[in-house]
């Protein structure tokens, strides 16, 4: 477990930095008022589309780079990062153009019509979209560096960028008088800085930097299953925000607080997944199948322990909702409806996120795709829209999220018990 810890601890800081900044951002904006916080919830939900695409790219790059690194092909592993960065830049520019064109209709649809919430969300999103290219470059950089088991430089890059942004956000929102706009500007600053730092790191590796379309195409093909899997996640979280919005501003503001804390804990728990992905990928790339299986078992136990610990922390955090996020009495009452589902899902979530890393490292993305689609289409989405139709409020939204995690847990444990996932070789 020492090797897992060596990779997981820096990855934990990197993964926690972005959602921690978002929590700071949420806390700062929360003191502006309910409409501004709800606007941030809608705009952030749309912007999470770019985060999703970046995460898909990072996970695909880590798996390919880790297998080559395990087979003793470090230069080829870094070249995977070069091609992923070209793909990231193109994707980031496309996201920027699409969001600028569709910001108004998207935010109005999610907010349930025109009004202060939709207006705040649109203004925030149009500025925040400018950070999409940097965000995508940063996730591609994280992907190849994790693959070659370099977690220290990403730690420095992400801390520097998010530290700058966390310092800028309250200054721009309040003393500078920009309000919600200041939050978006600080967001763009962090993403642009981190993207440039990862590009500079690639330039120092002394590998060819020209695009190679055949490698990019293989990455796109691998990413197809990850994209479908990620699309299921996005459908779930966008639906959650949309349904919460239909229960009123207080419910949406409470959901924003709870879902950002969920993302924070999920990404923190994903530190184990990052370590598992890198180590399992390298073990299978070096044709050490028994080692990969042993790592999978150890990571599963570690995920359960971490999930139980986070459940205790989440339970205690309910007391901090009002003072930290400026929640009024109605928002706090709505948050309580979601909170105990949030606590109950944490132990299962710890195992789920750890096993995601195992199977991503093994390149078993088709199974992950199918499981996520079944869990979303057969569990979460019917549950959340039923909650809306039956007027179950935020309690129903979070019951559906808990069901989604439970279904994925069952499917992942079943896969782990078999032998089909552990395929040896530098490329799967």
From TrEMBL:
Membrane topology: Multi-pass membrane protein
InterPro entries to which the protein is assigned, alphabetical: DinF-like, MATE_fam
Record's keyword annotation contains Nuclease: no
Superkingdom field: Bacteria
Organism in which the protein naturally occurs: Dactylosporangium salmoneum
Coiled coil: none
Pfam name, any one: MatE
Name under which the protein is recorded: MATE family efflux transporter
Keywords recorded for this protein, A-Z: Membrane, Transmembrane, Transmembrane helix
């Amino acid at each position: 477990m020492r090797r897992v810890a060596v990779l997981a601890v820096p990855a934990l800081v990197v993964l926690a930095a972005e959602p921690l900044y978002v929590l700071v951002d949420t806390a700062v904006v929360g003191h502006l008022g309910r409409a501004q916080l709800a606007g941030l919830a809608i705009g952030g939900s749309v912007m999470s589309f770019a985060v999703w695409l970046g995460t898909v790219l990072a996970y695909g790059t880590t798996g390919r780079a880790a297998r080559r690194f395990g087979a003793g092909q470090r230069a080829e592993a870094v070249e995977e990062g070069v091609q992923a960065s070209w793909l990231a830049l193109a994707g980031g520019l496309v996201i920027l153009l699409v969001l600028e064109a569709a910001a108004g209709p998207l935010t109005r649809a999610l907010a349930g019509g025109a009004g202060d919430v939709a207006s705040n969300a649109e203004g925030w999103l149009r500025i925040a979209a400018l950070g999409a290219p940097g965000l995508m470059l940063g996730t591609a950089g994280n992907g190849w560096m994790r693959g070659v088991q370099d977690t220290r430089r990403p730690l420095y890059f992400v801390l520097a960028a998010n530290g700058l942004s966390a310092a800028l956000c309250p200054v721009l929102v309040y003393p500078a008088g920009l309000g919600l706009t200041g939050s978006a500007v600080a967001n763009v600053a962090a993403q642009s800085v981190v993207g440039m730092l990862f590009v500079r790191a690639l330039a120092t590796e002394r590998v060819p930097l020209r695009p190679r379309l055949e490698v990019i195409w293989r990455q796109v093909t691998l990413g197809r299953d990850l994209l479908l899997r990620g699309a299921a996640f996005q459908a779930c979280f966008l639906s959650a925000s949309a349904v919460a919005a239909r229960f009123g501003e207080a419910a949406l503001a409470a959901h924003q607080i709870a879902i950002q804390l969920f993302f924070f804990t999920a990404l923190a728990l994903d530190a184990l997944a990052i370590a598992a992905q890198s180590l399992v990928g390298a073990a299978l790339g070096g044709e050490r199948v028994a080692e990969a299986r042993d790592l999978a078992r150890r990571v599963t136990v570690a995920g359960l322990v971490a999930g139980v610990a986070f459940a205790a922390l989440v339970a205690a955090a309910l007391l901090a909702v009002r003072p930290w996020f400026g929640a009024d009495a109605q928002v706090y009452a709505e948050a309580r409806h979601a909170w105990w589902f949030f606590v109950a899902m944490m132990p299962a979530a710890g195992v789920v996120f750890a096993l995601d890393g195992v199977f991503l490292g093994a390149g078993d993305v088709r199974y992950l795709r199918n499981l996520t689609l079944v869990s979303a289409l057969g569990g979460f989405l019917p549950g959340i829209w039923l909650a809306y139709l039956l007027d179950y409020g935020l309690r129903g939204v979070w019951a559906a999220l808990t069901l989604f995690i439970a279904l994925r847990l069952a499917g992942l444990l079943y896969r782990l018990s078999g032998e089909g996932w552990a395929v040896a070789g530098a490329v799967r």
